[in-house]
Amino acid sequence: MLRKCSPIAWFGTSVNNPAKEGWRESKQRPLPVNLPILIRSMPEISPSTRAVALLSGGLDSCVATAQAVAAHGCNVAALHVSYGQRTARREREAFEAIADHYELTQRLVADAAYLGTMGGSSLTDQQESIPGADDESLLPSTYVPFRNAHLLSVAVAWSEVLGAGEIFCGAHAPDSTYPDTQPRFFEAFQHLLDHALPTGTTVRVLAPLLHNDKATIVRRGVDLGAPLHLTWSCYADEDAPCGRCHSCHLRQTGFDAAGVDDPLTSMSDFSPGR
């Protein structure tokens, strides 16, 4: 069980390494003011970075990050993308806490608030209601149109800069009807990368939880020693889990089915459906 970073051997497809002389200096030029994705923090480039972990701060991304650390030790860069969601502040706190837990110093926070400006989702539109656990819509209103393609595109671009060969993503299909969490989406996205990157550059998108339900994800997190107590899943509130939204319900049923106490809710005054 690997809980924090420790140097381990890396194996896999070799990629080009852009961290060469002159690279850092050339990347320090002032950024254009109208970039659609605003870089909040950009650490020094490390030539030893092997993977980028998409870390929202939620349960699934935490377990996926734990797997990235298990495979690559400290040679993992943590990426967080904020897109105007209701719980952006709380998710950012969870991201920082999890990255601190694993001692991941290579971090990037990108602002994709334009997704929220577009609207079309109850996650970003305060005028829409967050659906409860009893919602039976084929496509819940919490779906953010084509969100994962945007997040993965940022991850791919940063991977190119870092010379990282893998991206870890916590998406999973069994409990979701979102089209961008399904196997066919990841197959298509990987096909795009196989034809769109510079010659000699290989980036693989890994979704290690893709075929797992929430209970299996919880068990895997426990096995990996992932800091599940630092994660945040609620769609609606930032102070305490609401216990009503679909995400809270899915999290609670996952822990219950796994036979594990949820450390987040057991430390609060959480009451399902309160």
Could you walk me through the main structural features you see in this protein, from its secondary elements to its overall organization?
This protein has one domain: Rossmann fold (3-Layer(aba) Sandwich), CATH 3.40.50. The chain contains nine helices and six strands; from the N terminus they run αββαβαβααβαβααα. The chain has helices spanning 23-26, 59-72, 88-101, 114-118, 147-162, 183-196, 214-224, 246-258, 263-266; strands spanning 38-41, 51-54, 76-82, 107-111, 166-168, 204-206. A six-stranded mixed beta sheet has the order 1-4-3-2-5-6, with helices on both faces. The radius of gyration is 18 Å and the shape is globular.
In short:
With about 270 residues, the protein is of the alpha/beta class. Helices cover about 35% and strands about 10% of the residues. The radius of gyration is 18 Å and the shape is globular.
- In the sheet with the most strands, the strands line up as 1-4-3-2-5-6
Fourth-tier CATH superfamily name: HUPs
Whole-number tally of structural domains: 1
CATH architecture: 3-Layer(aba) Sandwich
Order of helices and strands: HEEHEHEHHEHEHHH
Quaternary structure annotation:
single chain
Highest-level CATH class: Alpha Beta
Say what the CATH topology is: Rossmann fold
Strand content: 5-15%
Structural class: alpha/beta
Count of strand segments: 6
Which sheet architecture does the biggest sheet show?
A: 6 strands, mixed
Roughly how many Å is the radius of gyration?
18 Å
